[in-house]
Amino acid sequence: METDYVFPGRRVAAVSMVLGPILLLTGTLLRARFDFFFPSQLRAMSEHPGLMTAAYTCFLAGTVLLWPAIVALATKIGRSRPALAAWAGVFVLIGLFERTFHAGIDQAALGLAERRGAGFAESVVSESYQDLHLFSFLSFTILFGWYLLAFAAYRAKVLGIVRSIALATMGFLPLGVLKGTETMSIIGTAGLCVALVPTGIRALLESPKPNRKTVWLTALAIPALGALAFASTMG
User: Fold this and answer.
1) pLDDT in tens, 150-168
2) What's the DSSP call for residue 32?
3) pTM
4) Would you list the domain boundaries of the chain?
5) DSSP secondary structure letter of residue 29
6) What are the DSSP calls for 126-176, one per residue?
7) Where do transmembrane segments lie in this chain (predicted)?
8) Does residue 234 sit in helix, strand or coil?
């Protein structure tokens, strides 16, 4: 039987709109006390490994969790502005992929700082910082994707002017490897919360209650996923 289901689903998108921005803001605030540039970030990792690991992990988790929210927002925009929705959604998603790629480099560099010292990690990063790779040519999507998505959301009347401007502030978020927190980082991630979190909360409140079958399947899936997550760390 066919339904009007749209991937990834109302609840998944709603949770993404709430948790994604909050995790990004949390990660941004956790590393706010340290200088923005990578030598200071590496020194902070060697001196405060727990705090910096939490900061970068929260930021990465927020980046990954955002994709359902972007897909849902682009889908709503596409009902009246399909071309804008396609361009904006693709740009933002590529930008999220690139931030995830950067996070992998961050993880490797921070691991070096923790195990071999900040000086050694800094020399490795400084020597390879300008190396070309696929995402070197796509960095513009990280910034301009949010501006385009904000414009599209406003034109399609999916978001009002205030929340569209708040969404656009994500374009202020610095890009690149081992970037810490500056004022624009806080403005951008806080703006994303203003733009998406209210919509996510409203969608969760308005969603129909799950039936008994869904509740049981979820209850069984959670420990199974936990076991798979643990097993994934062993290989």
Assistant:
1) 999 999 999 999 999 999 9
2) T
3) 0.93
4) 10-209
5) H
6) HHHTT---GGGGSTHHHHHHHHHHHHHHHHTTSS-HHHHHHHHGGGGS--S
7) 12-34, 54-75, 82-101, 132-154, 161-178, 184-205, 214-234
8) coil
